[in-house]
Design a protein that fits this description.
This protein has about 250 residues and is α+β, with helices and mostly antiparallel strands. It is about 35% helix and about 25% strand. Helix 3 crosses helix 4 and helix 5 runs antiparallel to helix 6.
Length: about 250
């Protein structure tokens, strides 16, 4: 029998790959894992083996998949948001959207960020036609298009938080990397509670959350990620990095 080794504490993807087959109870992997789409079952494998992951596997999986977010966070998102996995899902929701009188819709491709995978369609029937003829691939998220919403980015890292609105007058995509304005936004107590509920549900130790605030004051979750752009934020990239590292140290040495 080989001697018992000390627990691994791995902090980079190269070390993780090197020791992947050896990992087990007592071992810890810190940081975001570079898991390819075809390898995502590794998250389940690691959890079943008793490996500690930080951020937790669920948070990392949610960050990677808009479809998983739409399933897990359905109660916090726009009503009638759904994941289109196949033609059955589309036909079923064509009837639902027709009954609700929903016209234009938005689709979100599963793994694209920075607004690159977001598209507007005149109707859900138009989406169905495109997916049937191969110009759109399953799975993807579908939700009603809501006009005149305020896009709010919330950054929460431990005891630090800030929120700011984002607006691009030339596009419905309010990712201001491609232009537009931003400004400080004061969250209500209900909005703060929503953010905390969403983070707790997905086991996020820190997060970038995008909220949609409608004209009549209702707030919905648009998406959540462990990391994201800082354009428009008050926090600097250096302070952001230091705060993430401090949270990682506190996980190792509570």
């Amino acid at each position: 029998m080989s001697p018992k080794r000390p627990p691994f504490v791995l902090t980079d993807n190269r070390s993780f790959r090197t020791h992947l087959s050896e990992l087990g109870p007592g071992d810890t992997v810190i940081g975001l894992l570079n898991i390819k789409p075809t390898e995502e079952v590794l998250f389940l494998d690691l959890v079943e083996r008793g490996v500690r992951l930080f951020p937790p596997a669920l948070a990392q999986q949610l960050s990677r998949s808009k479809c998983l977010q739409a399933m897990v966070y359905r109660d916090w998102m726009l009503p009638n948001t759904f994941v289109a996995r196949d033609r059955y899902d589309m036909i079923r929701h064509i009837c639902i959207y027709g009954h609700e009188g929903i016209g234009a819709v938005v689709t979100k491709q599963n793994r694209l960020n920075c607004g690159l995978g977001i598209h507007v369609w005149l109707s859900i029937e138009e989406v169905y036609n495109h997916v049937c003829f191969g110009s759109l691939s399953y799975p993807f998220v579908v939700q009603p298009l809501v006009e005149d919403v305020t896009d709010v980015r919330v950054i929460i890292i431990g005891d630090y938080s800030e929120a700011y609105w984002r607006h691009n007058p030339d596009s419905f995509r309010n990712n201001i990397y491609f232009g537009g304005d931003s400004g400080e936004y004061e969250l209500s107590s209900a909005q703060q509670e929503l953010c905390q509920e969403v983070m707790e549900r997905g086991k996020f130790p820190y997060a970038h959350l995008d909220l949609m605030v409608t004209r009549d004051g209702r707030t919905y979750l648009a998406e959540i990620n462990l990391r994201g752009g800082l354009k428009g934020a008050k926090i600097s990239g250096e302070e952001y990095r230091r705060r993430i590292e401090a949270i990682e140290r506190s996980f190792l040495h509570p």
